């Protein structure tokens, strides 16, 4: 049997995890001296409250080798596909590798460095789960996923620069000017890292829709099976506006909405929204 796992940064909802029988390995989130498990006993809202009260950013950490090893059954014949956040962003990939080696089952464990984050990973995880249900072998699944990685289009538009500044990803001066000028950067993932691409201005309704409409050509040339709207806590009207626009393209079979987990939210802050898909 092929079992599919991902670390918690894939930001898939419980409904999707249950539907596709996907297991999750939670990362750690530390608020000062207190440690939590992403998606288990910490919410982004609690994280934002702590961060604002302490004017500090939470710390995040990969699951330990021992934590990862618990998902494997070395006495079974099961094969495993395990997805991790980009190896350039976290030690998750390496810890999964070491866990498999410690149990001497590395021949049955296929580790996918997603070179991505959030539902950029989730898109790949769901596809792997579909292939597993079709009866594909772990090697066949891993090969197809590797061929899809470069086709994932993951980007987000940021509401506030405060959290990027607190996390050391934006200078104080840039954050100050960006906030004063109401600038909202578009951040895209490529080559396993995050890169600023463009800046938008205006209120949240305007800049979010400007961001989405800039992708119209790419959206119309995306794989039709699904597109994600993933956000870290946005006004429902804005999310619905994005959904209606995607529906108007008459292209996607499924439009899925998910909330970013605490690890991703700790870096991007509230009000961040992304539209993520796989290029055809």
From TrEMBL:
One of its GO terms (molecular function) is lipid binding. It holds the Pfam family DegV. Keywords: Lipid-binding. NCBIfam families: DegV (TIGR00762). This is EDD domain protein, DegV family. The keyword Cell membrane does not apply. It comes from Butyrivibrio fibrisolvens DSM 3071. The keyword Repeat does not apply.
């Amino acid at each position: 049997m092929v079992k599919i796992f991902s670390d918690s940064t894939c930001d898939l909802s419980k409904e999707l995890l249950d539907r596709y029988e996907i297991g999750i390995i939670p990362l750690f989130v530390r608020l000062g001296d207190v440690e939590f498990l992403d998606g288990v006993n910490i919410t982004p809202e609690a994280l934002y409250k702590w961060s604002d009260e302490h004017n500090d950013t939470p710390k995040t950490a990969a699951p330990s080798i021992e934590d990862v090893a618990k998902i494997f059954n070395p006495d079974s014949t099961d094969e495993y596909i395990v997805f991790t956040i980009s190896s350039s962003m976290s030690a998750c990939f390496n810890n999964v590798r070491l866990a498999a080696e410690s149990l001497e089952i590395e021949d049955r464990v296929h580790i996918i460095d997603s070179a991505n984050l959030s539902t950029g990973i989730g898109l790949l995880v769901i596809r792997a789960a579909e292939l597993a249900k079709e009866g594909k072998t772990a090697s066949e699944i891993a090969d197809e996923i590797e061929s899809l990685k470069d086709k994932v289009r993951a980007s987000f538009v940021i509401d506030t620069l405060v959290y990027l500044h607190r996390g050391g990803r934006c200078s104080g001066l840039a954050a100050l000017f960006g906030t004063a000028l109401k600038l909202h950067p578009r951040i895209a993932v490529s080559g396993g890292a995050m890169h600023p691409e463009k800046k938008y201005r205006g209120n949240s309704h305007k800049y979010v829709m400007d961001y989405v409409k800039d992708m119209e050509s790419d959206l119309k040339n995306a794989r039709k099976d699904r597109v994600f709207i993933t956000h870290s806590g946005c006004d429902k009207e804005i999310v619905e506006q994005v959904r209606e626009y995607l529906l108007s393209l008459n292209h996607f079979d499924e439009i899925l909405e998910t909330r970013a987990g605490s690890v991703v939210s700790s870096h991007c802050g509230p009000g961040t929204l992304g539209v993520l898909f796989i290029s055809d």
